[in-house]
Amino acid sequence: MLDAWNDGPTKASLVEFAAHAADSVAPEERVAVFDNDGTLWCEKPAYIQLDFLVRRIAEQVAADPALGAKQPYTAAAAGDLAWFGDAVTKHYNGDDSDLKLLAGAVLSANATITTEEHAARVNAFFANAKHPTLGRPYTACGYAPMVELLRYLESFGFTNYIVSGGGRDFMRPVTAAMYDVPPERVIGSSVGLIFQDGELLTTAQPEFLNDGPVKPVRIWGRVGRRPILAVGNSNGDIEMLQYTAGGPGPSLAMLVCHDDIDREFTYTAGAEKALDLAETHGWVRASMRDDWRTVFSD
What we know:
Blueprint: H1 9-24, E1 31-34, H2 48-63, H3 73-78, H4 81-92, H5 97-109, H6 115-128, H7 144-155, E2 159-167, H8 168-179, E3 186-196, E4 199-208, H9 214-223, E5 229-232, H10 238-245, E6 252-257, H11 272-281, E7 284-287, H12 288-291
Parallel strand pairs: 1-2, 1-5, 2-3, 5-6, 6-7
Antiparallel strand pairs: 3-4
Helix pairs in contact: 4-5, 6-8
């Protein structure tokens, strides 16, 4: 029973809530939602999907060297991941010039292929790519305590959903194997699709950026129920946690806190407001350092 979690207030809160929900909440209402990046798997030193996209953009430069004369193709071809991080930092400082260039390249990187071809590209990436500092396959970067929590909740009749700012069709090929969460229960950002000649084709048109206040909207649109348990780790999860905690019945909202520099990473950037709200509203905080007996499964 949650053997990957150390005994303490956090584990006790999860155990107590699951038992209480099983006694007082109808099975169909036992819905749990989980962010992915930084909640179910590593998001540092860069998002896993960013590595996938940078590699794809570099492939485009190799096929058409003229692309390398402009950003972000120049950076991708050189393996300059710092440029991509700087583009995001400039955005937060009010300068979206590089972010617009990045968005255009990202949206077109996997455009005009079938959904099956896109899944094949994702699977090929995960078959070989490794985390740049941990040295383990990305598919082994899922957090063992969180996977254990998914199974634990299922034993109490919960249905688990992944609700992430990451790409829906980037996550779907691996969530069943990593988390035992099937693709129909993955809610993420997406590009538009078109039906043509019997196939679904990707486009370069954004459909949803599944972050912040969009998360509860998409949860309702896909699930049709308010969750009673939500887990996130960043400011982008605040509205999902608020939506969950604001229901009429029992609820639990939890933040995963990255404070274990020896086994993973230590950072609060991008989670400052969420941490303040957790203190104000009494959300559960799961410390990697204090609450997790282990981080990864091996």
